[in-house]
Amino acid sequence: MQLEIIKKGKEKPDSVAFRVFGKDNQVDFYSSSRLGQIKVTSTGFIIAVPDEHIGKEFELKDVSGKKVIASGKLEKGTKKDDTQN
Amino acid sequence: MKSIAGLKQIGLCNAGTLATAPVNALALGYRGNTPLKITPFKNQTDYLDRSLRNKTNFNVSGESFQGTMEMLSKMFGWINLNADIQIITNKQNASANSEDVFKFTGNNKLGIGFEYLINDDKRSLTPTFEGALEYDTAKTLIDAADSETAVDLGFATREGINKAYYHYPFMLTFQAPKTTDLFTKSDILSRELKLSIEGAKDGYNKLVAHYLKAELSITALEASISKVVEMLNKGITSSILWKEQNGADPSIYDAFDFNEGVLNQTEEITIDDEQRIIMVKFAGKIPIYETEFLFGDGNGGVVDDNAGATGGTLKIGY
């Protein structure tokens, strides 16, 4: 699946890190913009996530300051606004 | 921008609990230099001396001066990949949450070995956490460090320092066999008890612990022929009791109780123009799980201490 997060906040992070949490809050999936796994667009971020993680909780963090930009449950075709305005 | 040196906290807890509710958390606290070293592992070199990537090794090792019986017993419980480890660097700038956080959990857990030492200089426990991860796995773990949120392991101080856990050397008993003091305390020149883990590394450079190696020695200035013969007359192996007092109360101590047959004795006598001494050594290896910790009143700890924070007894080879 592809998760698109629309960035509405004024500040655009230099680097973001994405985590999907599984059983017992373990990180089941990780990707980051620095590793070239997250596409940074003019409107936000596009993250490819294996379908096996659908239904799990995720969070996208601005690496600087570790602020959570977006979080929620992964659903197929997810398009979310960031939570930081 | 210059990076800031230092590790803020090196903490451990039971495997699988760091991400939820950490169980049995413990920090190295008062410690010596404990570098985190990340290096290539088993890179291959081609015919033109070009290094080809393989795994990446993580190694953290340093001496803790909070080597209580609680820490020692937890280390025994954590060998063979039974601990989650969290290493937090010092803040990289003035902002909150600017620490880097390395979490070694799940498939990325590190092997654990340790050396426990008592001598005239110190009482310490030096753990070594080590393991090699595939290059891309390692890259992901490193990349994640500056966006990881540190788990609060419940320590009262930032480094996990607890002044009650520090004990200076304080010889109480060195008996072999048990109930028989080897030397009069005032005649002892030096002494050392060293316990270390021995085993083999797996394919990921993680220690598989098989044995506890014990090396005890005591050097005395009382080396008369009569005393030397007394030592030579001792059995090749005997039960041994080493006790180290914790603070002012002699009923609070750390004890190491070796069964007969566990360690064998050797003797070295030196008579020269500088000294006349005798050194008695005891050494042997014990299968790692032939050990038992006893805590609480009568075993070196206070009544309600069932973890070994105040003191305890390690029985070996029974």
Give descriptors for this structure:
heterodimer; A: 85 residues; mainly beta; globular; B: mainly beta; 2 domains; five-stranded mixed beta sheet; 3 helices
Order of helices and strands of chain A: EEEEEEEE
Spatial shape of chain A: globular
Large-scale geometry of chain B:
globular
Beta-strand residue fraction of chain B: 35-45%
Order of helices and strands of chain B: EEEEEEHEEEEHEEEHEEEEEE
Strand order of the largest sheet of chain B: 3-6-10-9-12-13-17-16
Structure description:
The complex is a heterodimer of chains A (85) and B (318). Chain A is mainly beta and 85 residues long. Chain A is 0% helix and 48% strand. Chain A has strands at residues 2-6, 16-21, 27-32, 38-40, 44-48, 57-62, 67-73, 79-81. The relative contact order of chain A is 0.33. Chain B has two domains: 7-164; 170-316. Helices cover 9% and strands 42% of the residues of chain B. Chain B has three helices and 19 strands. Chain B has an eight-stranded antiparallel β-sheet. Chain B has a five-stranded mixed β-sheet with strand order 11-14-15-19-18, covered by helices on one side. A four-stranded antiparallel β-sheet of chain B has the order 2-1-7-8. Chain B is globular, with a radius of gyration of 22 Å. The model of chain B has no long low-confidence stretch (mean pLDDT 97). At the A-B interface, strand 3 of A face helix 2 of B.
